[in-house]
Every structure is written in structure tokens, then in C-alpha cells.
Amino acid sequence: MVTGCNQQPVVKDPVEEVVLKIGGSGPLTGSAASYGTSVKQGAQLAVDELNNNGGVAGMKFELLFEDDAADPAMAVNAYARLVDQGMNVSMGTVTSGAGMAMTEEVKKDGFLMLTPSASQKEITRYPNSFRVCFTDPDQGTYAADFIKTNDLATKVAILYDKSSDYSTGIRDAFVAQASVVGLDVVEEQAFTDQSKTDFSVQIQAVEQSGADLLFLPIYYEEAAMILKQSTNLDVVYFGVDGMDGVIGQMGSEYAALTEGVMLLTPFAADSKDEKTVHFVESYVEQFESTPDQFAADAYDVVYTIAAAVEKAGVTSPEDEDFNAKLIAAMTQIEVEGVTGTMTWSEEGEPAKSATAVVIKDGKYVAFEKKVS
Amino acid sequence: MSLAASLMNGLNLGAIYGLIALGYTMVYGIAKMLNFAHGDIIMTGALTIVISVHRFGVSPWLSILLSIGVCVSLGVLIEKIAYKPLRKASSLSVLITAIGVSFLLQNTAQLLFGSSLRSFPKAFQVPSYIIGGFELKGDRLLTILITAMLMVGLVWIVYRSKIGLAMRAVAQDRDTAELMGIDANRVISITFAIGSALAAVAGLFYGIAYGFIGPYSGSMPGIKAFTAAVLGGIGSVPGAIVGGVLLGLIESLAKTYLSSELSDAIVFAVLIGILLLKPTGLMGQEIREKV
């Protein structure tokens, strides 16, 4: 148990303030660039807000963010650059594939790592690593539950990326949970990294299966291609966090094709929750776009680190056992974030509830069950 | 998926491969080199359309002409700068240069326009027709028709026109052709120009069929089209189209009836099989080396 009793008074240089540097990397270029950009902006917004309110425990926050193009080798390099720049706390990587190798380094260096969005289960396998988003298996399980509970479909088809751990992880959990809750998976189609331009065969198979919902546990770039190539398909498209970004990818010309697409997310930008309203307004003002869940996850990461700092009673990154104290504090805090109210388990997983949003007129709105 | 729809998709894919393969096969036939940057010309053509329509508001028809213009200039320029100085060098050096040019084009496109996929303009959407319960996709039909027309035109150029005569002469024996007063460099330039124009058209059809274009979109179709050219018999104009269509059909049928993940493996297995039986490709000519 870490308490704030034994604080050592920090002698502050009157000019130089104590700065806590949060370092993270994510794709700012490449086929997942939307995720990284959102995370960087969401985190920056939270850092600015905290600093404008006088900082946390006498410290100002600073965000260091590097591009890793969602590539494992680049993520390790980005991590090394962050350490060189004096990073104190890590927000890991945005994507799972890039993060796996890098988590080894973080563990060696003993940093607290709190990733906004790397959802692969093993990312948090070390005691110093935590996450804000759901794990891949959880997303699959929750998606099946959600579809069943809200009676969205009885016959479900799946189209997933067999060459991606993320996609197969969600698909496996979804199929398992579907059989538990009694959803009928009538068709399963896959593609690979090498064959993701022409989806006509898979789409035809889905059409002939008579499914009324197509589950797409894939990234937005492929999802957008599928939406464009399947204009005749009469199904509900249901995605998970990777689907976020699909509105921007489709562009204004094809915005109509995203109408009615649903995705599982703990964050809805149109929520009336006071915190969320404030977050969305500030974000829109600063970045001229509506925040997606990646931005929201990152925003929550910064506020969670702030909460852990306060709980641990540290006042400077130079404090003894700074990161060890923060790590211990992680399982004791409760954070009311824009992605829900969260507590963390020893395993690094957040406990919060899942909901879904549906795209209406080019915007995400909270899903409300139709009363028939 | 019905057999008819699968065949239609295969023909469409095959037509695109065929158009690209024509560029490979003509350049190989005349300059005796494998221009591995050819696939990236398709990407350049399609990106030209996207950028000119979306960023500069150019009309769709004009953007097609612009795209052909850009591709032709680029193809000729690449030949002048990168390949011409190597005319007397070993074929291995030229091959490596071509791979280098391919990377150069991909990375330049990424630097200029970013690495994410861009949505192809909606203006090129072709309506579909439903005839007797079967959906006839307009864009598929258009691709196949125009490819057939281009193929006929190309055969006419190669076998009936004066420049075609010069091309065939250079292909057979460059030194002798030059002795007869043919400017081999000019013929090679024209060959690159024609190949690049066809690549621009292929880029247009690719964009229409799949909806998105990125800096690496040209590499896979490029490799498949090269395969198609080899399958049909590299150096043979009808062979490129036959190889392309065959490859497209095998790929589509394999995806439909065998496995959508293994389709590429099946395509290349067929290639290996055919080359074992007929090393010069389906329509390739056996050339005896003079001693």
C-alpha cells in the first residue's frame, strides 16, 4: 500500500518547473494513421488542460509522441528515442502488433506503461503494463453479447483478416461467445494482408448465406473497401474499435455508405455526460474534427496517470521508486473518464462497460434500441 | 457465389492484368529488359486521377487524359534517365535498376501524398444492369470491352503499322535493324510510351473496381501481371492478354471454390506447372540462340 505520508519536500528551482514527460508512439503515417493521430491529439488536449489548471502535484505534464507507422521495429526505435528525450512514464503504443516487442523494453526499464488502445491480450502480460481499452477477446465476447441482447440479428456472418493477430483474436472470442448465447454464425470469410483489394468473392458468399449482420473485426481501411464493394449487401455492418476512422476514410463523396454502420466502443461523442461534452467541445475547437474512441482513450490515459500520481503521492519524476509507486497506485484508483468509469486489475485490465455507436449522417451517435 | 459472377470477376481482373502485362511484354520483347517499375506506373496513373479530381477539381474526363499524359511522360523519362545509359550493361544491372526505380516511385508517392489509401472519385462509378436476375456490373463490362479494343488496336500497331514493323525489327535483331536505318532508341521510347499509357488505363480500371488507391497499390497487380506475361509467353502481345485473362480466371475461381486465402498460392502453382510443361509460356516462341 502506497500512501502520500512520506513525501519529501522538493526543493524547486523558481524558474525551472518540475516536468513529468509522458512518452508514446503510434502510427502517424501508414495505413493506420488515423489511430495514431487521434491518440496524439487526445493526449495533448488532456496534457494542456491539466497544465492550464496548474499541473498535478506540483508537476507540469509534457507529451512526447513519436511515429511508429504501426511497425514493431519502428516502435522499438521510437521507444529508444523517447527514453533519450527523458520520458518518465510510457503510454506504450497505439497498436498491438507494434507494441509487443516494445513492451519487453518497457519492462526492463521499469516504467509504468498505460496504453490507450493496444488491445492484444499479451500487451499487459507484465505487472507494469496497463491499458484503457478492452482486450481483443473481450471485444469479441462483448460484441456477441451486445448483438444478442439487443436482438440485432439471428444469423451472423464474419469477415476477418487471417493474417492479423488482432482480427483473429476477436474473431475467436466472438465465435466462442456466439455459440454460448445462441447466435448463429452462418458464414465465415477471411482475407490476408496479401489479398485485401478484391472482396467480391467474400461479399458474394456473405450475401448467399442469408446473414442479416456482418461482423467486421478489422481495421477501418479494409472496412472502407468492403463497404464500397458491397453496396448491394443488405446487412447490418458491425465492427469493433478498429472500425473507428471509417468515416474519414470513406471521404465525403461516399459518406452515405457508412450510414447505419455500428461499432462496439465505450465512447460515444454525442453522449450528454458532462465530461464527454466538455471533451468533445474542446477537441472540436482545437482540431476541427469530432474525437473518436482513440482520442478518448488517450485523453483518459493522461487523466489516469494524473490520478495515479496523486494517489502515489509523488511530486517529482526524480522521486525514489517513482514508477514503482505509480504502478502500485494503478490498482487502487478509480477514474471517471470519457470512456467510462474505470478501475484496474492486477493484470492491467480495466473494468468498464461496453456500448455501441451507430453512424448517422456521418457522425457516431449512441445506439438506442428501437422499440418495435 | 454463382459461377457466372465468378467468371465475370475473373475476366475483369484478367483484363486489368492483361493491360499491365502488355507493358511488360512489349518492353521485354523490344528492349530485352524486365521493367519492374511498370506496376508502379499504374499507381501513379490512378493517384493522378484521385489528386487532380479531389484536390484540383479537374473534370473526370480531363483527369483521365492527364493521367495518361503523366504516365507516358514518366515512362519515357524513366527509360531515358535510368535504362538508356545501361543499354550495353548486363541484364542483371538493368533488372536491379528497375527494382530501384520501383522503390523510388513508391516512396516518392508516399512522401508527396501520404501512405494511406485514398478514395477513388465517385464520378467514375458505372451503373449496373440486372438482366434475368443476374447482376451485370457496368464497370466490369466496360473494363473488358475497352481492354479488348485496346488489344485489337495494339495488334494493329505492332503488325500493320510502320512503327510496328520497326518494333518487330528491333525485337528480332537490334543491330541489323539499326543498320537498316531504324532509330532503335526512338522505337524503345515509343514502346515505353505505349506501355505506360496502357498502365494508366489499367490504373483507372483498378481504381473503379476496388475503390481505393495508395502508394503501394501497384506492386501486387504488377507482380501478377508480370506472371501473366510469363504465362502467356513473354514478348508475345496476344500472349499477355491470354495470360492475364487466364490468371484472373484462375484467381477468381480458386477464391470462390477452393480458398480465398490460398488463391495466390494456387495461381502461382499453376504458373509453375505450366512453365514446367512449356518453358516459353503458352504463346511464346522458342528462339534458337545463334552460335
How would you portray this structure in words?
- The complex is a heterodimer of chains A (372) and B (291).
- In chain A, helix 2 (72-84) packs parallel to helix 3 (96-109) and helix 4 runs parallel beside helix 5.
- Helices cover 39% and strands 21% of the residues of chain A.
- Chain A has a seven-stranded mixed sheet with strand order 7-6-8-9-10-14-15, with helices on both faces.
- Chain A has eleven helices and 15 strands.
- Chain A has two domains: 18-133 and 273-352, Response regulator (Rossmann fold, 3-Layer(aba) Sandwich), CATH 3.40.50.2300; 137-265, 3-Layer(aba) Sandwich (Rossmann fold).
- In chain A, helix 1 links the parallel strand 1 (18-26) and strand 2.
- Chain A has 372 residues and is of the alpha/beta class.
- The mean pLDDT of chain A is 88.
- The radius of gyration of chain A is 21 Å and the shape is globular.
- Chain B has 291 residues and is mainly alpha-helical.
- Chain B has one domain (3-218).
- The longest helix of chain B is centred in the first third of the chain and has 29 residues, at 3-31.
- The mean pLDDT of chain B is 88.
- The A-B interface holds A 29-31, 33-34, 69, 162, 189-192, 194-195, 197-198, 200-202, 204-205, 208, 221, 224-225, 228-229, 232, 249-251, 253-254 and B 1-2, 5-6, 9, 13, 54, 110, 114-117, 119, 121-122, 135, 209-212, 214, 217, 220, 252, 255-256, 260-261, 263-264.
